[in-house]
Amino acid sequence: MKIDREALYKVAHLARLEIRPEEEDAILKSMDSVLNWMDQLNEIDTEGVEPLTHISDEVNSWRSDNASNTLSRTEALANAPLKNERYIMVPKVIE
To answer: How does pLDDT run across 44-86, given as a tens digit for each residue?
Structure first.
């Protein structure tokens, strides 16, 4: 399939792209190579091949979502840059 300048500008309009005249030839060549590649793919016999919905057959292994305290207050405060004896202190963000 060959793309002409009229088709190029129609696609550019639909995609809301601005094509400068000096870019036309390069874009036409690129689009033509993509369409030629698609034609090659159409020549492949896919009879009896199941369509893929996912590349991998792996299944997620879900774990239960149980809340728990994994850090003690002392361990959490040890990494805080600004703290008092009970809380992590942060700069005021609301006026």
So the answer is: 998 998 888 888 888 888 888 888 888 888 898 998 999 998 8
Confidence (pTM): 0.48
Per-position DSSP letters for the chain, written without gaps between them: ----HHHHHHHHHHTT----GGGHHHHHHHHHHHHHHHHHHHTS--TTPPPPS-S---------------S-HHHHHHT-SSB-SS-B-------
Structural contact between residues 21 and 5, judged by C-beta atoms closer than 8 angstroms: no
- 35, 46, 62, 71 from 74: Cα distances, Å: 63, 63, 31, 8
- 72-81's contacts with Cβ under 8 Å and 24+ in sequence apart are none
